[in-house]
């Protein structure tokens, strides 16, 4: 049997989102993809779609050209003990905090690190990619083009991979939390929850789309909404007075430090 082009270990939220993105965009044929996860129902589902299912991680890695690791970072040592003698050509890791050096210390293949985010489920993801000097142009292009099918891609230096978590990796949760807080405040003022949710979500979509398409600076866009002496400027001034920038900085710092704590 010829090797699969891509193997995926782990089909949690992110692993499955990447897989569905590949299948939905016809980037690879289903029979070019090998899978392993502990969830048998998940494997059965994708086997029905034509993906190749392997009985364990070792078997997958020996039969796949590129192996994408999408498990929890805490499980990497256990996985490494099972597959470090395998003959894959390239490892692609989406594990927060696990460095390229860690893989070099345990494997001889090339390594690509990715910090994706969950909106790639709907083709609107944002992924940061770093890689070692071993990686072939073929493998790098395969992965970069794959993730471009799922949203925006930027290649960055690996030294920034912990910091980039707070730019795209964790940030969807920030957005969801902010929207939830705004909805709860609206409800407390007598506004129907569904009405508040619909209006707020559409406002985020519209505002982000305008910002992406605009030639103006972010400050110019803020100023366009904040009429002098009007209502919006009062809210923005309050956020500044309460030092929202410092709260964001602290949240980001704690997020980055956690990545360093669990990192290798």
Can you identify the CATH class of the largest domain? Alpha Beta
The value of Rg in angstroms is 21 Å
* Helix amount: 40-55%
The main pleated sheet reads as: 8 strands, mixed
Q: How far apart are the termini?
A: 35 Å
Tell me the count of domains.
2
Q: What is the strand arrangement across the widest sheet?
A: 3-2-1-4-5-6-7-8
Question: Which structural category fits the helices and strands?
Answer: alpha/beta
Low-confidence region ranges: none
Q: Which whole number gives the mean pLDDT?
A: 93
Shape: elongated
Task: Provide the β-strand percentage band.
Answer: 15-25%
Question: Could you characterize the architecture of this molecule?
Answer:
The protein is an alpha/beta fold and 264 residues long. The chain has two domains: 159 residues, 3-Layer(aba) Sandwich (Rossmann fold); 92 residues, ProC C-terminal domain-like fold (Orthogonal Bundle). The chain is built from eleven helices and eight strands. The protein has an eight-stranded mixed beta sheet with strand order 3-2-1-4-5-6-7-8. Helix 7 crosses helix 8. The longest helix has 21 residues. The protein is elongated, with a radius of gyration of 21 Å. 29% of the residues are buried.
């Amino acid at each position: 049997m010829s090797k699969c082009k891509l193997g995926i270990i782990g089909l949690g939220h992110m692993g499955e989102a990447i897989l569905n993105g590949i299948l939905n965009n016809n980037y690879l044929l289903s029979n070019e993809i090998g899978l392993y996860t502990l969830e048998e129902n998940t494997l059965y589902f994708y086997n029905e779609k034509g993906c190749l299912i392997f009985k364990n991680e070792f078997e997958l890695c020996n039969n796949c050209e590129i192996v994408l690791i999408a498990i929890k970072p805490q499980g990497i040592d256990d996985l490494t003990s099972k597959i470090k003698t395998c003959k894959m050509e390239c490892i692609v890791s989406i594990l927060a905090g696990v460095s390229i050096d860690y893989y070099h210390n345990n494997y001889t293949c090339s390594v690509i690190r990715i910090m994706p985010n969950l909106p790639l489920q709907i083709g609107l993801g944002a992924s940061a990619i770093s890689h070692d000097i071993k990686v072939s142009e073929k493998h790098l292009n395969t992965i970069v083009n794959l993730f471009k099918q799922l949203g925006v891609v930027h290649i960055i230096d690996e030294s920034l991979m912990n910091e980039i978590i707070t730019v795209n990796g964790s940030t969807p949760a920030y957005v969801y939390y902010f929207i939830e807080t705004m909805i709860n405040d609206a409800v407390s003022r007598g506004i129907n929850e569904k009405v508040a949710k619909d209006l707020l979500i559409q406002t985020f979509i519209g505002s982000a789309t305008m910002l992406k398409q605009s030639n103006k600076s972010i400050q110019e866009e803020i100023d366009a909404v904040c009429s002098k002496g009007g209502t919006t400027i009062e809210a923005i001034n309050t956020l500044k007075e309460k030092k929202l920038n410092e709260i964001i900085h602290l949240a980001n710092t704690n997020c980055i430090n956690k990545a360093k704590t669990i990192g290798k």
